[in-house]
Amino acid sequence: MAIQAQCYVELTPESLSVMQSKWLASPSTCVVFEQAQEVLAYALVHPWNRGDAPSLDSEISSQHSNSWYLHDMAIAPRAQGLGVGKQLLTHVLDQASALNIDGIGLVAVQGAHSYWLQQGFKPHATSPKLTQSLGTYPVGASYLYLTLS
């Protein structure tokens, strides 16, 4: 929760129960980065339909899908620039590949759009449902998708 609060300055951090629901939906796909027994970064990843995103600050439940949603990848400010993000993303992509996942979607916020494009994610067509979900995110949020298979 502390890392989330440090990283997201353009939006109200999600509640503990919301964050826990993301983890409970798929604990095996979520990951933390630790150093000296301290969590410095995390990635919350769970199955979700391609072309859709959960509304911000809403609890979710387990869903069956062959696509994943990278709900959140956050790195403590003091660990930024150490390659932690790349390590987390590599772990998620390796895990998705091993499980034959079709792809991964995400919503880029706070100017992270260009970072995700550099990682191979591409803009995806929006639907009325996705447009409604994106309305819960800060202005400028965009849905991107990385096709894996």
UniProtKB/TrEMBL annotation:
Residues 1-149 form the N-acetyltransferase domain. Pfam families: Acetyltransf_1. This is N-acetyltransferase. It comes from Shewanella ulleungensis.
